[in-house]
Design a protein that fits this description.
Blueprint (H helix, E strand, L loop, with lengths): L11 E4 L3 H12 L4 E4 L15 E3 H10 L3 H8 L5 E6 L2 E7 L12 E3 L2 H14 L3 E4 L4 E7 L2 E6 L4 E4 L1 E4 L6 H5 L4 E5 L4 E7 L9 E8 L5 E8 L2 E7 L6 H4 L4 H10 L7 E7 L2 E5 L9 E3 L5 E2 L7 H20 L4 H34 L3 H13 L4 H9 L16
Parallel strand pairs: 1-2, 1-11, 2-7, 4-14, 11-19
Antiparallel strand pairs: 3-6, 4-5, 8-9, 9-10, 12-18, 13-16, 13-17, 14-15, 15-16, 18-20
Helix pairs in contact: 1-2, 1-4, 1-8, 2-3, 2-8, 8-9, 10-11
The structure holds flavin-adenine dinucleotide.
């Protein structure tokens, strides 16, 4: 052994301390399995933007089961807006307010808070857990699986041995490349500008999710704004002929925010970015030896409509912990291998389902065929007399309501 070589006590190494890697470690801990997290970033890192604000009930439940109190902490610090509204060329075509937060088992249908807060609460949960060892500044460099286990080496030369590895190292995943998996899919032709805007504490807006088709004061572009605890997320759909970089610059973004949210929000923009959304899934979620499991953005990227990114990553993480738990307790190798292989099949199916669902939303939003445009215009005309037409306009930008086929985690 060289000086830098280390022996992990834990049977599982998790690559990445994003929300998915942290959930995997917590879900393993809940099953009595220790893990070592290797995270590339330094401890004092600055994570940008609100990102995954919409945390679905299933995610809350998984977090609550993985570390009692964690799901509830997200709820206590998030908001559950109760009104959704849609306007077509400035005219309201749908509005609905729900009497309560929905959900069951004490958890609401969803909660909305910045992803950095969710990560902070996960980190606290990890610090409270005895079985999770988190190493910052430890980018995973190589991953070698054999029939006996996995050897992971960091860029710094530290070597870790484990029974299983969860690759939760995000979109640019090294683990994905190391197991020879490849992304397959498409990219949206137009860009989207996403801005975070602080709430005005002296004069807060009503908490409602609002979608504008063809906003008349933004040159007919689609705009979505969604509240989260402490602020607003504004999504502006650019035209293919737009220059998104210039639109996202000051003072252009401030002017657009002032137009859609109100003048008092002009100087409250805290973060802006512009994206072309990728719609890709890995061609496999597990390596040849059934030792390495991809989870979250290491295995798939979706357009954000329908909030399938972090939510589906948390489902991957829980399913990975469940499969590893069964595999570690299996009497024979075939059972262990079968369980991990099954994880790969199920979560790949789930990823493909989610990609198709987010793709449906994206296609609907971008679709400028005569048929799509006519359907939207007719629905807007009918909405005054026929509520389902307005409801269709309100619903369609987020894709189907259903999630992928459910896999129940085992403890
Ligand atoms: C604008 C925007 C809006 C979004 N909105 C939503 C939403 O409303 N709802 C939703 O569910 N999702 C949303 N998402 C998606 C969500 O942010 C991601 O799905 C989520 O962050 C993915 O989590 P992850 O843990 O898989 O990856 P990441 O958050 O990217 O974490 C990966 C971690 O791995 C680390 N890492 C990278 N390489 C290595 C390495 N070699 N070794 C060790 N560590 C490594 C990284 O530093 C990072 O900490 C949104 C995303 C964006 C960009």
């Amino acid at each position: 052994m060289s000086d830098s070589e280390q022996q992990a006590d834990a049977p599982v190494v998790v690559a990445g301390a994003g929300p998915v890697g942290m959930t995997a470690a917590l879900a393993l801990d809940a099953r009595g399995i220790d893990s070592t997290i290797l995270e590339a970033d330094p401890e004092d890192r600055d994570r940008p933007g609100s990102r995954a604000i919409y945390v679905h009930k299933d995610t809350l439940r998984t977090l609550e089961q993985s570390h009692p109190g964690l799901g509830q902490r997200l709820v206590d610090n998030g908001i559950t807006w109760s009104t959704r509204r849609t306007l077509f060329r400035g005219k309201e075509v749908f509005a609905r307010t729900y009497p309560d937060r929905g959900g069951d088992g004490g958890l609401p249908h969803f909660t909305s808070l910045p992803q950095v807060w969710t990560e902070e609460y996960m980190l606290d949960a990890i610090e409270e857990s005895d079985g999770i060892d988190l190493h910052w500044d430890s980018p995973v460099d190589t991953v070698d699986a054999s029939d006996d286990g996995v050897t992971v080496e960091t860029e710094g030369g530290d070597v870790w041995e484990a029974e299983y590895v969860v690759g939760a190292d995000g979109a640019g995943s090294t683990v994905r490349k190391e197991i020879g998996a490849e992304f397959d899919g498409t990219e949206s032709p137009n860009s989207f500008i996403i801005a975070d805007v602080d709430e005005d504490p002296d004069n807060p807006r009503k908490q409602e999710r609002v979608f504008h088709y063809d906003h008349p004061e933004l040159g007919g572009r689609n705009v979505l704004f969604v509240p989260f605890q402490g602020g607003w997320r504004v999504d502006i759909q650019c035209r293919e002929s737009d220059d998104p970089e210039r639109m996202a610059e000051e003072p252009n973004i401030n002017r657009m925010v002032a137009t859609v949210l109100g003048e008092r929000y002009r100087d409250r923009v805290t973060w802006v970015s512009e994206y072309k959304f990728k719609q890709v899934t890995a061609d496999r979620m597990v390596d040849d030896r059934n030792r390495v499991l991809l989870a979250g953005e290491a295995g798939h990227l979706f357009a954000p409509f329908g909030a399938r990114g972090m939510n589906s990553g948390v489902a991957d993480a829980d399913a990975a912990a469940s499969a590893i738990s069964v595999a570690l307790n299996a009497d024979v190798r075939e059972t262990a291998d079968g369980e991990i292989a099954e994880y790969g099949i199920r979560r790949q199916k789930a990823a493909e389902y989610n990609r198709a669902a987010a793709g449906q939303a994206l296609e609907y939003l971008q679709g400028d065929s005569i048929v799509t445009k006519t359907k939207k215009r007719l629905a807007a005309e009918l909405a005054d007399y026929y509520e389902p037409a307005g409801e269709w306009l309100d619903d369609a930008p987020y894709g189907p309501h259903e999630g992928p086929p459910v896999t129940i985690g085992q403890y």
